[in-house]
Amino acid sequence: MNALSETWSWLTTADHWTGGAGVFARLVQHLQLSAEALLLAGVVAIPLALILGHVGRGSWLVVSLANASRAVPVLAVLVLLVLRMGIGDRPVVYALAIFAFPPMVTNTYAGVRGVDPEVRDAARGLGLSGNQMLRRVELPLALPLIAAGVRTAAVQVVATATIAAIVGSGGLGRFIVDGFQTNDYGQLVSGVLVVALLALAIELTLGAAERRLDPLQR
Amino acid sequence: MSRLHRSRLHRVIPIVTVALLAAACGGSSSGKSAVSGSGATPDNHLVVLQDDKHLQNSDNVVAVVRIKVAKQPLIDALNKVDTTITQSDLVAMNKRAANHDDPATIAGDYASQKNLTAGVGGGSGKVVVGAANFSESEVLANLYVAVLKKAGYSASVKNVQSREVYEPALEHGQLDVMPEYAATLTEFLNTRINGSKAAPLASPDITKTLAALKTLAAKRGLEPLEPSTATDENAFAVRKDFAAANHLTTLSDLANYHGKLVLGGPPECPTRPYCELGLEKTYGIHFTGFKALDVGGPITIAAIRNGNVQIGLVFSSDPSLAGG
User: Fold this and answer.
1) Hey, are the CB atoms on B292 and A174 less than 8 Å from each other?
2) Which regions in chain B score pLDDT beneath 70?
C-alpha cells in the first residue's frame, strides 16, 4: 500500500470522522483555537493601528512591531510558553496571536493612511472632529484593507494551528503529529489534506465577505 | 487635522503603548498549578517511580571496545568508571551539562571527586573514545578519557553522530571505545546481523541482555565490558509532592491509586507495551486520560511540573530528576 491508497483508506473509514477524536471534533477544536488567536490579535492590532494611522505618526512603531512579531518563530514561542505555563490551549492561542498580529497591524495602518487626502480635507471642511473622521470616514474606507489583513491572518493561523498538536492540544494537527509518530501515513496525509482544504475554504469565504464589505463596491 | 484634536490622540498613544507592554509583561506570570492545596509550597521536582516489575528494557551504560585493543589495563580503567557511576551521579552530571558546563570539566570534577584515577595504570598507546551527539555521551566519553589517560594511554574524544555512523567506525578501527546502552545496542546489532524481522534479544534483565550483546558484538570484533547500574531508559516520573501525598515509590504502588491520573507521553504511547499498554496490563494502573506530548522531552517535563499530567514518560537520566 502506498501513501495515496493508505490516505484514501483512512479518509473513507467512517470511524475516523466521528467521535471525540474524529475529524469533525478536531475541526471544531482547530477553528476554536484559530478564532481565539485571531480575536486576541485583532483586539490589540486593529485599534492600535487605527489610532496610529489616524494620527499619522508613529509609523516607525507600526513597522517595528510588525517586523519584530513577523520575525518571531511561532513554534519556538509556543515551546517557550509551554515551558513557562505548562501545556493547554492558552500557550497555543498566545503564540498564534503573535503570529496573526503583523498582517492585521500592517494592513489596518496602511488602510487608514491610504485614505485619499482630499477626502480627509472634505471631511474636515464639513466640520467633522478627529474622532468622527476616524469612525465615519477613515474606518469605512480602510475596511477593505483591514478585511484583507484579517483574511491573511486567518488563513495563516488556520494553517499554522497544527502546531497545537505538538504540545498536546487538539485540532487537525493531531492527525499530522500522531500519524508521523506512529508511521501511519494515511492519517498524516489525511490531516494535511483536511488542513489545506480548510485554509482554502477560509480564504474563499473571507474573500467573498471582504468584497461585500467594500463601501465603494470596487 | 485640527491641532486640538491631534493633541488628544497624541496623549493616548504613549499610554496605550505602555499599557499594552505592561499587560504583556504582567500577563506572562508564572503558570502556577493548582496542586491539591495542603497549604505547603508545591514541590514540582520530579521523581521516578521505580519499575519494580521490570517493564523497561535494560539500557544500562556500558563501554564497548574493539577486541583488538581490549587489553587488561584498558578494561580495568573503563570498568572502574562504569561500576562507580550511579544513577544519581549520571543525573547530576547531565544537569551540569544542561547548564552549559563543558563535558570535559564535568568529567574531570567527577573523576577527582570519586578518585576515579586511583589504582589504574599499565597502559600505553593511542585510544580514541567516541562521543555521540548528545551531552550525556560526551560526558561519559570524557570520563573514559580521563581515566584512560591516568592509566597511561594517549586517549582522546572524537565526536561522532549517530549509531548508524559510529558503529561501523568502531568496527573499522576509527574508534576504539564507545559509551553505549546495553539494550539499544543489542537490538541495533540484532537487526543488523539477524535481519529486521529478528526476534528481540534485549530484555529488562541486564544479565540476559549482556549475554546476548556479547555474542552479537563478538561477530563484529567488539566486546561489551561491565555494565553500570546507571541507565538511560524509559522511566515514568511524577511530581515529588504527588508521590509523597499518595505514598508512591514504585509503579506497583500506583495500581492502588484511583484518583485523576493523566499520562503524558509520545503519541504512540497508548499502543506500546513499554508505555501505556504495558503500564495498564503489567501493573494494573488505571489512567483517566492521556496527553500526546514529546518523547521524554521538555514539553512532557513541563506538563508534569505544571500538573497538566500527573505522570509522564521521561528518560531515567534526565537532568530534571536531580534533587528528586
Assistant:
1) yes
2) 1-43, 324
